[in-house]
Amino acid sequence: xxxxxxxxxxxxxxxxxxxxxxxxxxxxxxxxxxxxxxxxxxxxxxxxxxxxxxxxxxxxxxxxxxxxxxxxxxxxxxxxxxxxxxxxxxxxxxxxxxxxxxxxxxxxxxxxxxxxxxxxxxxxxxxxxxxxxxxxxxxxxxxxxxxxxxxxxxxxxxxxxxxxxxxxxxxxxxxxxxxxxxxx
Length: 184
What we know:
Blueprint: H1 3-23, H2 37-41, E1 57-60, E2 65-67, E3 76-82, H3 87-102, E4 107-114, H4 118-128, E5 133-137, H5 141-145, E6 153-157, E7 163-168, H6 173-181
Parallel strand pairs: 3-4, 4-5
Antiparallel strand pairs: 1-2, 1-5, 3-6, 6-7
């Protein structure tokens, strides 16, 4: 066979394989609330919208272990990665407190502090009278798992543990509520 015939044959074969492979895919229509527990458990864990949020366990300022999975099936979770030295983080904290106060029954706020000492974080939280749950990511491992490259970073996780929204940068309360509403 000459070169052109071989090339044509290869292109035809690759096209056939592609079409056969694509015909094997199936897509299920419906909303996230219609998914079964098994279907949700089959969604890959990945720190991106539409995927299951990576679980984590961190210590809060009272020494209690808190896991993201503690809230699965119960509440939407508002995860905020921050540090006290970060001006945009400090600027949005009062709005996070408002979200916490107004949505206690529906939304759980987890403010994940990055690599600061417990005493420094505790002083900052007490000085500003914040009442939401503050967790300590002493090594930055959880931030790495969530691909945090800039702070503040907010991740909204629905009741099923699926990431519904992410935002990097400071937000006001209206912006926060718009993100939260994506989980309902």
